[in-house]
């Protein structure tokens, strides 16, 4: 099978020592076997820990402090664009034209940028910050914005704050060139849960939140325009809590949900086709500290980035049962922490 039939993935990495990564790496997957191949790096960038793509290009940042020049990077055929980030240790990014939002974990704020017609970030137009803290003194002494997500069906931006155990929804508008973001709802999560990431169903009437510190899954349901917690369960019942749950993905048919548990080196799966999530299986991630994973766009593959063992592993995914099976293939990348499939 020729390389043009392969699936291609961008890999975000940590580049600081002892890592030897230089920036955004690339791998490809052979759909006949699941074999992974390391390709030439895309671009050099310090600590590009999260990535996202649009038809216009690839977006990332340097996860550093402002003093160390935390910056947003946009790469396209038209060249690269860099803009400073007024926040410490950015960790997540999302886009809904003409806006781009960055969650800054260290400083707890969200930086919002305006994009031009070619998708290039022009300038920062909003800085969102809400004070707060949680009971875990080591991890929740201040706000830690960990994810930003623009909703598809309305003009809302959701912010997941690990530090203050909150999920916030902002309504945004553009009237006569005045870009406004107004806080409309704050969901108080269980104390000490440390919400990290969330995914929505297609209709955006239900959301699933992975809580890093409590290692739980929390379900939110939209009722009469207001989000409410409707269910919560442990990711790994009867297993010692490692306070390190990480990535969460929902299958395209909305039947299966997967979560990575870094301390236990496990991918946990759930059937979410009913009212409440039902635990299905747990899978060894074939590495250490599964920071991120992605389901391929065709649904046939699940690819895991194991940060501490410096390897990326492929699993074949059964689209009917949701089960995943290791292919036995891996690709070596130092400190891989984010995976994004290239292409439309």
TrEMBL record:
A Pfam family this chain is assigned to: Lactonase
Keyword Membrane: no
Keyword set includes Methyltransferase: no
GO BP annotations listed: glucose metabolic process
Keyword set, alphabetical order: Carbohydrate metabolism, Glucose metabolism
UniProt GO MF annotations: 6-phosphogluconolactonase activity
Family named by the database record: Belongs to the cycloisomerase 2 family.
Name the UniProt record assigns to this protein: 6-phosphogluconolactonase
